[in-house]
Write a structure and sequence with these properties.
Blueprint: H1 30-41, H2 48-61, E1 63-64, H3 75-81, E2 83-84, H4 86-99, E3 104-111, E4 124-133, E5 136-140, E6 151-157
Parallel strand pairs: 1-2
Antiparallel strand pairs: 3-4, 3-6, 4-5
Helix pairs in contact: 1-4, 2-4, 3-4
């Protein structure tokens, strides 16, 4: 859903439960990225346009690749290294939003291929984020940077530390898993 008229809510008008999503977190170092964020986005229109400008920038700035991925990479490191996977795109966009006083939360789940032209890759574990604008949480995806349908949300949190896809205690082997989405027509 694209809502270009969604305005940015002034900090003093934000609901209490959104304030935690303005603060820095383990992977989203707002203190280290604030000056950069204001230099890059301080002149952009507020609200939806600002979040989209952040997504556009992050989408162009980071080159996708599994090889340089690591579970400890932070938004600041992704910014400087300019490489990463979907979680790095999400962390950097979240950090920039928070620096610009826009609440942003991390989302983890699966991203299907519904609505995508063939050949499309198999459904995959993915990360995206939500920003609080105009009294609602809206989905943004700096990695793909286009609206997508068929997202299967697992969890939301401040960053990846809050919502790991799994936690294991002791040795284990994941043999396989499959998630499938099907488009259902109403009517």
């Amino acid at each position: 859903m694209v809502v270009p008229y969604a305005r940015q809510t002034p900090v003093e008008e934000l609901p209490d439960e959104t304030l935690i999503f303005l603060l820095g977190s383990r992977y989203c170092e707002t203190d280290r990225l604030s000056e950069t964020a204001w230099q890059l986005f301080g002149q952009t229109p507020t609200g939806w346009a600002r979040v989209q400008a952040i997504c556009d920038y992050v989408h162009r700035h980071i080159v996708f690749g599994y090889e340089p991925a690591r579970p400890t990479k932070t938004a600041c490191e992704a910014f400087h290294e300019r490489t990463g996977v979907c979680r790095d795109y999400a962390h950097l966009a979240i950090a920039f939003c928070r620096c610009m006083n826009i609440p942003a939360r991390y989302c983890t789940g699966y991203l299907g291929d519904i609505g995508m032209p063939p050949p499309c890759g198999p459904m995959d574990f993915a990360c995206w984020f939500e920003s609080y604008l105009h009294g609602h949480w809206y989905t943004f995806d700096a990695r793909n940077n286009i609206p997508r349908i068929g997202r299967v949300l697992i969890a939301r949190g401040r960053d990846a530390a809050d919502v790991a896809i799994s936690n294991t205690f002791g040795p284990n082997t994941l043999k396989s898993f499959k998630v499938r989405t099907d488009e259902v027509s109403e009517g």
